[in-house]
Amino acid sequence: MTGPRRPLRIVRVANFVTPVSGGLRTALRHLGAGYREAGHVPVLLVPGERRSEEETDQGLVVTLPGPVLPGSGGYRLLTDRQAVAHELTRLAPDRLEVSDRTTLRWTGGWARRHGIRSVMVSHESAAGLLRAWGLPGPLAGAAADRLNGRTARAYDTVVCTTDWAAAEFRRLGVRNLARAPLGVDLATMRPPTADQRVDDRARYAEPGQALLVLCSRLSPEKHPERAVDALADLRARRLPAVLVVAGTGPLRSRLAARAARLGLPVHFLGHVGGRDALARLLGCADVVLAPGPVETFGLAAMEALACGTPVAVSRSSALPGLVGPAGVAAEDTGAGFADAVLELLARPEADRRRTARIRAEQYGWPAAVAAFLAAHAAEPVTTLGTAPPPPGHK
Span 194-360: which CATH code? Predict the structure, then answer.
């Protein structure tokens, strides 16, 4: 008869996380909280301005100094390998989970040398990102194949959140591949009441206007300019529409200047920090736009569905398969997204909102946490106890 399973210390290392970054930050928080609820000991290691440690609902969060990536709008990177390796040794993980297959890929070798099971999470399409950064298609594909092949060899398991993201690994015959979809906070992200929707809409749109929302980091790979172009196209077609942009990033000033030059009604809110406030914004929209062509899960789009709002998504991303009948796949142009908006608005409002929520309910966080723990070979602790704190933590 076997004894109770022991808690495992799952140390997660991630780049491209800031206090105002979106999908990855949200996913890390929910996964950490889920690991903790399952009886394990999650620790998150991220870059920041200075070193710090903080106990949170997702476990211990350790911040190490890291430089800002130029032109990224504030993203920082863990570039000091010696400092990261020292921290990993101090934390003594039972499992290692990494969310950056570029600058952090070396951690797979560190884990192997120390006999620690490791997982790399692929949050994006490498080929898609390289194309978004200007590398021609054939070169981007070849470079992505080299990157993905090395990643698969460096880690025990590569986790992809969608079949779309996994395709570039399967093409290489990678065998240590696991599928683990992300989730949506269905409790916080929920449809507003009819009165709430009326009140919230009045902040941005007049009666009879179509309210569009873009919730995205305003960076080149997300192509937020397509939302502004879609608004211009819709108004040229005599549809009275307004756009609300929630998010920040290096392209904000350029987008604002373009909207002003064209005389378009665009409200730039910056980062919307409160989850309840974000839910009410997404829930009062008629359509949410997700123009990013390299999205592998698109958390903002899935949260919009949870709030009862249909989405127009890039046909080049993983989102068409995820949103299904609750959205429309758009051509990657402003006109293409305008067409998708019109198609969604032609559906009866009650039907499109009900379909959106039903679709989101297929993606709860408990199932996502279970899939990630399975990739770690970390079963939930059935007899819960108090795990020891990370070494050095007070």
Answer: 3.40.50.2000
User: pLDDT digit string (tens) for 142-172?
Assistant: 888 898 999 999 999 999 998 888 989 999 9
- The predicted structure's pLDDT at residue 383: 40
C-alpha distances in angstroms, 159 versus 37, 149, 170, 179, 387? 21, 14, 12, 6, 26
Q: Which of 3.40.50.2000, 3.40.190.10, 3.40.50.1820, 3.40.190.290 is the CATH number of 9-183+364-375?
A: 3.40.50.2000
Residue whose tokens read 């070798």: 109
pLDDT digits (tens, 9 = 90+) for 272-282: 988 899 999 99
Q: For residue 392, what pLDDT is reported?
A: 46
The whole-chain average pLDDT of the chain stands at 91
- DSSP assignment of 68-135 equals BPTTSSS-B----HHHHHHHHHHH--SEEEEE-TTTTTHHHHHHHHTT-EEEEEE-B-HHHHHHHTT-
- Asked, colleague to colleague, whether 9-183+364-375 and 194-360 share their fold, the answer is yes
120 token code pair: 């790399």
